[in-house]
Amino acid sequence: MENIKAYVSQHKDRFLNELIELLKIPSVSADSAFSQDVLNTADAVKEALSKAGCDTTEICETPGYPIVYGEKIIDPNLPTVLVYGHYDVQPADPVELWDSPPFDPIIKTTDKHPDGAIFARGACDDKGQMYMHVKALEYMTSQGELPCNVKFMVEGEEEIGSSSLAWFVERNQEKLSNDVILISDTGMISNTQPSITTGLRGLSYVEVEVTGPNRDLHSGLYGGAVANPINILSKMIASLHDENNHITIPGFYDAVEELSLEERAEMAKAPFSLEAYKNALDIDQEYGEKGYTTNERNSIRPTLDVNGIWGGYTGEGAKTVIASKAYAKISMRLVPNQESEKITALFAKHFESIAPKAVKVKVTPHHGGEGYVTPIDNIGYKAANKAYTKTFGVPAIPQRSGGSIPIVALFERELKSKTILMGFGLDSDAIHSPNEHFGVFNYLKGIETIPLFYKYFVEMSK
Amino acid sequence: MENIKAYVSQHKDRFLNELIELLKIPSVSADSAFSQDVLNTADAVKEALSKAGCDTTEICETPGYPIVYGEKIIDPNLPTVLVYGHYDVQPADPVELWDSPPFDPIIKTTDKHPDGAIFARGACDDKGQMYMHVKALEYMTSQGELPCNVKFMVEGEEEIGSSSLAWFVERNQEKLSNDVILISDTGMISNTQPSITTGLRGLSYVEVEVTGPNRDLHSGLYGGAVANPINILSKMIASLHDENNHITIPGFYDAVEELSLEERAEMAKAPFSLEAYKNALDIDQEYGEKGYTTNERNSIRPTLDVNGIWGGYTGEGAKTVIASKAYAKISMRLVPNQESEKITALFAKHFESIAPKAVKVKVTPHHGGEGYVTPIDNIGYKAANKAYTKTFGVPAIPQRSGGSIPIVALFERELKSKTILMGFGLDSDAIHSPNEHFGVFNYLKGIETIPLFYKYFVEMSK
């Protein structure tokens, strides 16, 4: 694999243009208005996999959006790598905050990306990182460097809970059998300091509806005499945290594993500047659970955040109305051992219990997923670390991420194999935000590093 | 005026059709998208006034929407009645909750309106009630029954704070000089029990903006470590009421006049069924300030209600985002002696003071108005009561309303005359709500009653 660097620089422009074409399709899984685009993206990924050298590729129907599957089996006795990624993207709104159209990709340089970055929804999460694996496969097959079997499973519902993927995996254990699962859907510390994500948070996501009077009312004639659903919802949301920002849902922390001081000290070694963090977000003060650092709050601790709230008159000017209904989307990030379904049930029970008689409350679960921790002593982790060390010149640092990839825990349960999270994005890439981007350096470095993982993993498997 | 009843029933259909035409114009003053419609409505009102017998009518330009003015002076030595109304309407949203298009009026019968009611935005508030006065004038002029001078002042910004009206009144005291001001922009107890509104609440209306991070963030990577503006806004809103639903803004109650037990006992005599009230709104329990009845809470007590709230992802499905900003529209209903501007300042000071350092807060005043109380011993009130007694067969009951007509206090200050609030709507007419309507009975009864007010007022003025 000595010529991998040369191969990447030789095909650089084509690699970028192919990704840009893929990014032009608005595959927003959360909004049914884009359903045809999501399906078209699946077809584009299938075609890319065949071109990259898969012997068989297929669009696997599911109850939801299809799974794109592809494989190249060179020898049943050799190890098999299962690559997972997703071709759906987050909604782009608020679109008005994008400097360029979210589905009209352009390459611009930034402080963090002097070689340029591709700006588009999905550039990093996850089309760009998924496509690195397609191009790495192209290199290995075209150059006769593929050292083992490979399977691809690319889904279209990651941003809405991967429920169809779970359905698919449970029914295809044989087809998906593998020795290691490889995913690039996370980040690394910086372009000079690679890291491997060894922990993920779980997720419980619910939508709540508070109903007061059966119709919107004049706030003068009724104000003060009836429960205002917006005021009540605000009160209920406020009560979900105490003065130390602990979550007040009974039983919420029961399963939370407390890390040892040693582990916390180990985590604290990762380079981090609170000042730089606050400056990057333009905030005067950080905020969170008492007794934990910023990096602990967003990785090893569970959280509860309102992701959206709406009710009453939100148009121009003033309307003196008491709304009939108020709504909120609320998500909880969970740590390993907290079970998503159990937490969702605890939330629903508690939220209904704190509602005053003067309103009616409905809690609708959206989706969830379990947390996950990868041991750093398995060969998958070691192979990945050796690959990073070779291409970046320094070893990777193991890191807990605050994000969730709900299906990683499912993979281990159903497929009995470990997942290695080789991320090449940066926290500053604004995934889920306006102006999401992915560094050209990171994209190409990923394509360069992935084949080495295959090489070392096969060597270590012997 | 013996033939008034006959005249009304003879012209009933035309009176209805003329009002329906006026209701078809969507004069939503809060939304600039409708500005041309608002202006067209002013022209339509001007034309209606000339047809009804005004000698002079004009469109008076202001910094905002124009005031429609009309007058008929028959003898400078006779008393002058100044009629006030507004031709603008509330926004119609949520439009999807209307059973028929808000600006495509239809007449349907209801339990409360067996003779039918006109369903349209503005049917009751205030186009329908304002147009009763136009038709009453038509009767008096066409039948030679006008006993005094009359002036009309119809504005287009009542639903957004009447700021241009204040500007106009301050500059036209001479033109607007009068002996009594007559307004139909309130309600009555029922179609068998008329009432006259003797008190109005003031209003302070603000919009608040809470800013956390400078961009939307991924709730997994940042959740728990940064202040979520929606959670913070909810906390701040919740803290504005204590456990007894008293408002916690320091100084908020300082100017509030406490009614004597006698006055409260007098109020309590008005027919009212809490069960019927709760059933009408489909609520299991009323809600409000401890120590006061439902009718006291919505009339003699000040309130604080969130009229609208929004932030984050409010679309279909789930988006795991921490919003950069959250917003709310908040209004406070004030009682006589509470000064709107002072309360707005108290709110802003308090709201900024309770914001954690981790967010930035902006408070923008929308508009306000002062409360008002009419004595029941002046001839204006007595003439109105005699008119109701004649047409309804029973005397009217004096009633405090929870609503606000911000300019009534201004009229007394600038024009030195009392305002009589002859309302013909019902609380169930759903003003400011979807499916606003106005009873055909109420509309015609108003046209029948108003001329009698003129007659008795002139007689009592001698």
Automatic annotation (TrEMBL), chains A, B:
<dbReference type="GO" id="GO:0016805">
    <property type="term" value="F:dipeptidase activity"/>
</dbReference>
<feature type="domain" description="Peptidase M20 dimerisation">
    <location>
        <begin position="199"/>
        <end position="357"/>
    </location>
</feature>
<dbReference type="InterPro" id="IPR002933">
    <property type="entry name" value="Peptidase_M20"/>
</dbReference>
<protein>
    <submittedName>
        <fullName>Dipeptidase</fullName>
        <ecNumber>3.4.13.-</ecNumber>
    </submittedName>
</protein>
<dbReference type="Pfam" id="PF01546">
    <property type="entry name" value="Peptidase_M20"/>
</dbReference>
<dbReference type="InterPro" id="IPR011650">
    <property type="entry name" value="Peptidase_M20_dimer"/>
</dbReference>
<keyword id="KW-0378">Hydrolase</keyword>
<keyword id="KW-0645">Protease</keyword>
<keyword id="KW-0479">Metal-binding</keyword>
<dbReference type="InterPro" id="IPR051458">
    <property type="entry name" value="Cyt/Met_Dipeptidase"/>
</dbReference>
<keyword id="KW-0224">Dipeptidase</keyword>
<dbReference type="Pfam" id="PF07687">
    <property type="entry name" value="M20_dimer"/>
</dbReference>
